[in-house]
Design brief:
This protein has no helices and 11 strands. The strands form 2 sheets. Strands 2, 4, 5, 6, 9, 10 and 11 form a 7-stranded mixed sheet that branches. The protein is globular, with a radius of gyration of 13 Å.
């Protein structure tokens, strides 16, 4: 079983930068893709932020293109989401899923608040 754990959330001012981490032991050996999501409020469905497949290629949602960047440290089995030029509208709980051979595992999420 792959259990993602997110960290790195917090309070940041508009225009600032924050980097989130998603550690998912086993995702390399199980050839899992890693997906970042966010939920801006409990009444909304979560929206996909990015998808990183096994060769490291990443696809981004339109609303984060040019601002957010995903990278991976495979030795640490960690996927990072660097978020630049943050806006108040980016305030949300960010979470990551590991999709491994049609099985999905998800973490608890980490809160990001963008406010002055």
């Amino acid at each position: 079983q792959v259990q993602p754990v997110e960290s790195g959330g917090g309070l940041v001012q508009p225009g600032g930068t924050l980097t989130l981490s998603c550690t998912a032991p086993g995702f390399i050996s199980k050839k899992c893709s890693i997906h970042w999501y966010r939920r801006q409020n409990p009444s909304m469905s979560r929206e996909r932020v990015s998808t990183t497949v096994t060769d490291g290629a990443t696809d981004y949602a339109v609303f984060v293109q040019g601002r957010f960047t995903v990278s991976q440290d495979k030795g640490r089995e960690t996927t990072y989401l660097q978020m630049n030029s943050l806006e108040p509208e980016d305030t949300a709980i960010y979470s990551c899923d590991a999709l491994c051979d049609m099985r999905r595992y998800w973490g608890q999420g980490t809160q990001v608040t963008v406010s002055s």
